[in-house]
Amino acid sequence: MTAARSFGIIRPRCKESMEKLIERGLLFDYYGGLLSEKNKRIYEAAAVDDMSLSEIAEEIGISRQAVSDTLNRTDSKLRRYEDELHLIERNRRIRDRLDKIRTILDAASDTEAGVYGEDSIGMVRGLVDSIEEEL
To answer: What is the pTM of this model?
Structure first.
């Protein structure tokens, strides 16, 4: 483990790596529970811990090629889950809508608090917050 990793700092090797790391992290968060323990361990090492193929291979006791093959198969499997279930996409759409509601509420409370009433605005904010917590 590098010094950067030991302090929780992730330094992907390039922009593409950062995008892939973020995508893998999201896929793992949503669908990682569907993986076998071995695949979960390997994928988590790559997606969450940003370990290299060599580091993962050494830690688990398999070849770099086996790690690479497992990651590629698991990437494909997790993308298929998202293609079928759309959980990440759905979550993004809901969050976007919640952000729009908050923007509208902010504008309404700033300009027309007397018309809408602070209690109503507060209740809607509470509902938005509770929906967001469930996501």
So the answer is: 0.68
